[in-house]
Each structure stands twice: as structure tokens, then as C-alpha cells.
Amino acid sequence: MRISAILEQPIQLQGNMANAVVDFSSHTVSIVALVSDQRRNGKPVVGIAFNSIGRFAQSGILRQRMLPRLLRAAPESLLNPEQTAFSPAAVAKIAMTNEKPGGHGDRAGAVAALELATWDLNAKLADEPAWAHIAKTLYPSTSNYPDKLPGVPVYAAGGYYYPTNHNDQLSDELLAYRDQGYTDFKIKIGGASLSEDMQRVNTAARIAGGAQHLAVDANGRFDGATARAYGQELAAAGVRWYEEPGDPLDYGLMAKLATTYSGTLATGENLFSVIDTKNLLQFAGLRPQQDLLQMDPGLSYGLTAYLEMLTAAKTAGFSRKQCIPHGGHLINLHIVTALELGGCESYPGVFQPFGGYSPQCTLTNGRVIPSDAPGFGLEQKTELTAVIAGLLKDAM
Ligand code: MG
Question: Is pLDDT above 70 for 194?
């Protein structure tokens, strides 16, 4: 059993929305395919994944450094010890050959795409959804996995700053999500004045049926004084959580804010390694049983590393229900389902072709259930069908 080819393609994100800091219209994502020598129905079995959303494609790092390492490796070195499946951990480790420690930036997403594609490949070889495959692999002593899932809590992330008619477009956007079955929402703050942002919060909270169903995200924009000024108003409004008030690595700012902000703080999507997570847990003043951790496996070396982050979080007193990964797409839906995390993000209207779920996923009353497609089911997502066909056009 071996990997016969690895394909990568940068894909432009669609949309003209912006958060407080970043205009996403220029963003790209790397989609990768691990083509195996195993065949089903006359075609090779292929693992597919991408490096989440919100950064850029990693074509250079993948093509110049990581893909040659994996293709040069002895085929059996990419398998598990029993030689019965590909090893996501081995793929990640070999992709990182000769890389120095530290500097967990873009390469963390490059490795993640490959590691996650390995999970997709294994699940397809086992002919089961990725969530079930991940759960069985990680918890082999659990013999019964439910045929019918209860679904995981999901919230619709959006509420970006549009070029015109901010408040009208915000209302229209959230109403559309509500019509789709979402009951919880997240909007951006920090791209306007505090008073304008609180108008946005109030508008969104009305549509959400109360601020307890509304989270806000500053995308790391604020200095300490601004973070605290927003915090006063947001605590009074009673929002569900206050996300990334300051620079994601400014643990001092977060620790100081945590002493005065009575509500829930959330952060972690811009930490890309286990050691960054441990530092966050040690120095950022986050409160066990209260605050939320949002590290994203697709931006931080994949599921293997994410499991170590969960262990670090548990050691620091945080439960899995306090882990709600960034990245509203099918890959993280399966991971949240498999690991029984606290919830899942969704980008139903934005970040196409990757954001949101496939039509076969069930969304009811704020809970989402993945489809029974093998792997992450990316092939079922309407916006991705042509992308994947283009990626694989010479491989099938
Ligand atoms: Mg965020």
C-alpha cells in the first residue's frame, strides 16, 4: 500500500467581505490530494483535504519541501505499525523532515492539509465517514458507535463588514442563516466605532433572539484599553463570547482583560502549535470552566497535533466542551463530532467553495449532523465538486 501521487492546487476564495483587519477577497487555500495505489470501483482511492480557511495557500512550502519528502519516503514508513492503514502522524512527521523547531506559521497549515488528507484517505479505505473512522481509531475499546448521531451544536459565523449598507446587509445575512436552521451566530466587531459596533451587536442580538445566542469577534485588533472599553459594553449586553480582543500572541493583554471581563473570552485560532497552546494556557489568564479555546487542526499541523492540544487543555482544567475549533467547514465538523467537542463553526454564506457543509448534512435547531459519505464528504459539497474534479483530472 503506497501513495502514488500527491496533488496540490491553490484555490481563490470567493466573496468581498472583510473582518476588522483582513479583506478576504485575495485569500487562497491549498487543496491537496493523496492518491493511493488502492482501487475501488476501478478508480484509485484518494484522500482530500485543505489547510482550513483564513490564511493562504501553501503551494511553495508543499511543492518545494514537503511533497518531495513524502514521495521520497519508503512506502511502509507512511503506514501505521500494523501496516493496515496510512499513518497521519507519520505523514506529518516526514513532511517536517529537516524543519527546525519554532516558527509555527504557514508550514503548520501545509502539514495540516497533508495530515488531514491522510485521515480522509483512511476513512475512504475503511468505507466510513471520517467522524466514525477517527472515533474508532482513537478509541478502539468503544465498541458501539451510534448509527444516528445527536448532532453537534453549530453557530453561523459571518457578520462581516460589507462595502455598503452595513446594518441592512448584516440583518439580511443573519436572517438568511436563521432560515437555514441556525440558532446561534457570530459577527465581527472592531471595524467601526464602538457605538456603531454596539448598534451592530444590538441588531444581531435581536435577530438571534437574545445576546446569549450571539458571539463577537475582534480578530485581534484592539490594544488593551480598547479591549477593556469594548469589554464593558459587551459584558453589559451579555454576548455569548468575546473573541480575540487583542493580538493572538499578546497573552499579557488577555490576562489583564480576564481579570475585569466577567463574560466568556475565546481565542486560539491563530495559534499553530502545541507549545503555543501550552503558553496560552499558562500565561493568558484564561479561566477553566469559563473561557473557550478555538485552535483549528487545519491551521496547526493537523489532528495529531490537535489531540495534543486537547490533552494540554485538559491538564489545565478545560473540558472538551470548551473547545470549539475555528474553521466552519466539513473537516472540522467531522473532528468535532468524533471528539465530542463543544461545538462547530459554520460559514454558510462565505468563504466559498470551502465554507459551510454539504446539502446531505442535516441542520436542525442549531445542531448539525454530518452525512454518511466516506471520509470528510468533501466531494458532496456542491461548490467543491468541480474543484476536486479539476484537481484529480489527470489522476483518475
Ligand atoms: Mg475568529
Answer: yes
